[in-house]
Amino acid sequence: MSLIHIPQLLKPEELLKIDFLFEKSQFVDGSKTASLAAKSVKNNLQIDTNDYEILPQLQSIIVQALETSPLFQIAILPKHIYPVIFSKYLEGMTYGWHVDSPQMRNPHIGGPVIRTDLAMTIFLSKPDTYEGGELMIHGSQGITSYKPNKGDAVVYPCMYLHCVNPITKGERRAAVTWIQSEIASIDKRQILFNLNQIHGSLYQKDANSVEANLLLQTHSNLLRMWLAE
């Protein structure tokens, strides 16, 4: 899959809990966690990664939402998810054009080094409460702008250049993470996703039809073959 918009990843009650925890959090200079050239263009605030009280609660909400999102699980096939970072942008803050590191080490002791196949931004502010702050992604079809509803998520390949436009008014809150997929290839993930969608349609019509079973067999065998690569 290329660019994926997941509407309402977070439920209203989860967003209320996140808002409450945000107000209690301590924020630090976000550029400290950037690497390479991204450090010079990153200007935001993020919850201190040494916060062992509030940050784990916030991360748990996001992880649970991802684990129970059918679209995320089917389209992304996640193997490893980097610990979620929570940020806010105040007036004048921005994150210039950059590309993410190809690998990131999980900061937990003994955590794995993950291959960053995909990045995810979860929007934690209503779009009419701030001006600017659009997520801009320079993908294969050109530049796409995202400023969706609070609780929505956007997932995109880490190989794409992307930025956050300057905030001209208000405050933009977001959660970001990176994912290593079970299947590294965008094209192969797209094929598996398409087969899954077609199977779902056939299953609704006749769960035990020859066509539905054959398609499920094909999907399963391709996944098994590509997992072994």
What's this model, at a glance?
This protein is α+β, with helices and mostly antiparallel strands and 229 residues long. It has helices at 12-24, 54-67, 70-76, 186-205, 210-227; strands at 4-6, 27-29, 42-43, 45-47, 78-81, 85-89, 94-98, 103-105, 113-115, 118-123, 130-132, 135-139, 142-146, 153-157, 161-164, 167-170, 172-181.
Outline the structure in words.
The structure is a single chain. The chain contains 5 helices and 17 strands. The chain is of the alpha+beta class. It has 2 domains: 4-181, q2cbj1_9rhob like domain (Jelly Rolls, Sandwich), CATH 2.60.120; 186-227. The strands form 4 sheets. Strands 1, 2, 4, 5, 6, 10, 14 and 17 form an 8-stranded antiparallel β-sheet that branches. The protein has a 5-stranded antiparallel β-sheet with strand order 3-7-15-12-13, with no helix packed on it. A two-stranded antiparallel sheet has the order 8-9. Strand 8 (103-105) and strand 9 form a beta hairpin. Helix 1 packs antiparallel against helix 2 (54-67) and helix 4 (186-205) packs antiparallel against helix 5.
Secondary-structure blueprint:
Layout: E1 4-6, H1 12-24, E2 27-29, E3 42-43, E4 45-47, H2 54-67, H3 70-76, E5 78-81, E6 85-89, E7 94-98, E8 103-105, E9 113-115, E10 118-123, E11 130-132, E12 135-139, E13 142-146, E14 153-157, E15 161-164, E16 167-170, E17 172-181, H4 186-205, H5 210-227
Antiparallel strand pairs: 1-14, 2-4, 3-7, 4-6, 5-17, 6-17, 7-15, 8-9, 10-14, 10-17, 11-16, 12-13, 12-15
